[in-house]
Structures are given as structure tokens and as C-alpha cells.
Amino acid sequence: MSNQNGHANQKTVDYDIFGVVGIRLINPTEKDAAAVVDQLGPAHAPLQREPDIVIRFHREMKIPDLIFLGLNSAGYNEDGFYILRSDKANCKARIPFEDIGNKQLVIDCESGLRAVPLLIALTNLAFLSKRYLPLHASAYLYNGVANMVTGWAKGGKTEGLLSFANHGAAYIADEWTIIAEGGEEMFGIAEPIRLWDWQFKHIPHVQHKIKTQKKMLFKGIHTMDSVGKTFSNSPLRKTFPVKLLNEALPAFKRQLNVRLQPHDIFQDRFCKSAPLDKIFLIMSHDSPAITVKPFDPLAIAEMMISSNEYEHIPLLEHYRAFTFAFPEMRNPFLDNMRDLQAELIRKAFKGREAYQVLHPYPVDFEPLYQAMKPYCETKPKAIEQ
């Protein structure tokens, strides 16, 4: 979708995310626009206001007198700070870190990149600058109740979402849930959902969405894993080919996943927004049992302050590199981001009905659903403030 929006002779693509954050692409190629859709989902809508983030695409970006930071992952010159690697691929993107959260953020990118560096994080911070809390959590509507599942990375929030998807729940969010100040509304960015191969058997209706080439890759990786295990107690385990295989396997296993659009899983079951009704802190443990018990919402809030901070490490690493390159330039918004998030998390969680869920890993979706279901289908009591 393109329009002019006052930019003569320029192709523009707008994203209006729930009327709160606006993003404008200027002169993207079809590949560039598709890369952004893969990050933000299909949220095209013309903006009737100035965008919070502008991404200008250039056919070629020449960066003279560049000084590298790290192993060519970033660099700087007198014109600014550049990210040179994103999504495991080379790129060129100038990001003025001094402007994040303080004024309109204008990013310059060379066309052809696989992903705009830090785009989800920068979008989250645009929400945060307006006192909307981006929380590392999934959310779904089930029986008219809006449930949010949160925790540390790889704790099971997507599994909690998908287990209810099999039983008619409507999608609100997966990776990031955006919560209005006080928790009276929450929504999400419909970015692709990452599914691991062990999860496919629990959601059989998505099998046809997985390309044959991917299935063959998964089969090959599992075959190599079996071979490695066969030789693990053999005298041959110290031979060069077996040692090489075992060293390579972790990298191969990280490829045992696919990214699917939420529509592929939830079809037309989408909830645009809902008030935050219940909170589930989900984690795995070293027991075969699945347990659900009431939990102090403010205790979860204190834990999630650290979880959110952890999820922003990639952006903060680049900010530290930026302040190394330009020690006289600081960003008060980024420097005080933890305190603002802590304030909003505590405010959103206070008085909410909350539970702790512990499960084995990997977890079967149906037993997880059955364990959580009694706590997910009734409206909560009035919030105690």
C-alpha cells in the first residue's frame, strides 16, 4: 500500500499501530516492505498524523571514514552511529540513538536488508514513551476472559497461548503484549510466531503450512542427532568426524523451527484489544507435574521488571556502543527506561488475579490446557487498588 502523504515523488508505506504508534517507510522496495511486514505484521493504514518512526530506504549507502565497533557489527563516523549486522546478515542502518523516545526517530537503511535492525524494540520504546507498557508476554481471549501469560524467555508463554488456540481462543499477542497505563486495555503486534518442531504434533492443523524443504531439513538434523548419540559412548566418539558432528549439532538444532503468521494458527479468531483480566506467570521445572496456584501479582511484577530489561539487552548493547562512540551524547529516556517500566508494570499488575504455572519441558499442550482452563474461563473479581 503506497501513498504520498505530502512526500512528493516518494513512495511511502504507513503503519498505524492501534492509533498510538505510527511508522512510515519512505521509498522501500517490495523486498524492503515485505521485510517490515515480516517484523510488524500486516498493520498497513494511512497515518493522519506525523509518524513516530520514519525509515528512509536508500538504494546504496556510502559510509566514509567508518570506525568499526566489535567484529563489524556496528560503526560510527562524524555523521552518526551505524548498525552493520542484523538477523545474522550484513546491513547498513543509521540509527540516531539520541532521539529514541525523545523526538521523531528517523532511521536510514540501505535497501535489500533482511530485517530493519531493532525495529520491534524501537516500536516498543515508542509505545513506552507514551506510557504504554510493552511486556514480554502472550495474551488470548478465552470464554470472554482476557488472559496474559508471561515469564522469563523460553518459559512457556507461547505454549500457553497455543494450548488454548486448540480450543477456540482468540489471539491478542504472542511475543509482546502492549498494556495501556493501568491495564484497562491490552493488545499486540501481530508479528510471526516461532514454532519449534516438537510443537507441531500439538497443533496438527498447521502441518500443511510447513514447506517440504523444511521438513526434509528437520529430518536430516534429527538423523544427525541420532548418529551423534549412537557414537556418544563409543570409542569412535574421539575421532575427528564424530567430534566435528557433535560440535556442529547445536547450531543445526537452532534451525528446528519455522515462523508462521498468527492467521495460520488462529484463522479468523483475533481480538483487537481487551482489558487485562488475569495474569499467569509460567515456567518449566524438573517435575512431570503441571501445577497452577494463586500468586502475588506484585511479586510477578518485580520479576517481570528484570525480564523486560533482559529482552532489551540487544538494543541496550548498541546504546552502550553509541555512548562509547559519542561519550558526550546521552539519552535520558534510555538511561531511565528501567524505572519507567517498573512504574508501569507495578501499576498494571496491582490488584490483578494472578497465578503461577509450573510445567515440564517439553510440555504436552492438552494437559497444560486442562490444568489452566479452570482459572481462565471466569471473569475476575473487582480489582483491589
Search tags:
33% helix; disordered N terminus; 3 domains; Rossmann fold; 8-stranded mixed sheet
Short description:
This protein is an alpha+beta fold. The chain is built from 11 helices and 18 strands. The strands form 3 sheets. Strands 1-2-3-8-7-6-5-4 form an 8-stranded mixed beta sheet. Strands 9, 10, 11, 12, 13, 16, 17 and 18 form an 8-stranded mixed beta sheet that branches. Strands 14-15 form a two-stranded antiparallel sheet.
Describe the structure in your own words:
By secondary structure, this protein is an alpha+beta fold. It folds into three domains: 12-128, no CATH class; 131-192 and 264-376, Rossmann fold (3-Layer(aba) Sandwich); 204-258. It contains eleven helices and 18 strands. Helix 3 packs across helix 11 (365-376) and helix 7 runs antiparallel to helix 10. The radius of gyration is 22 Å and the shape is globular.
Q: Helical amount among residues, as a percent range? A: 25-40%
Biggest pleated sheet = 8 strands, mixed
The string of secondary-structure elements, in order, is EEHEEEEEEHEEHEEEEHHEHEEHHHHEH
The number of distinct β-strands equals 18
Shape: globular
Number of domains: 3
Question: Radius of gyration, Cα only, in angstroms?
Answer: 22 Å
Average pLDDT, all residues:
92
Q: Estimate what percentage of residues fall within beta strands.
A: 25-35%
Structural class: alpha+beta
How are the strands of the largest sheet arranged? 1-2-3-8-7-6-5-4
The second-level CATH architecture of the largest domain is: 3-Layer(aba) Sandwich
According to CATH, what is the class of the largest domain? Alpha Beta
Distance between the termini: 45 Å
As residue ranges, the low-confidence spans are 1-7
Distinct helical segment count: 11
Stated plainly, the CATH topology of the largest domain is called: Rossmann fold
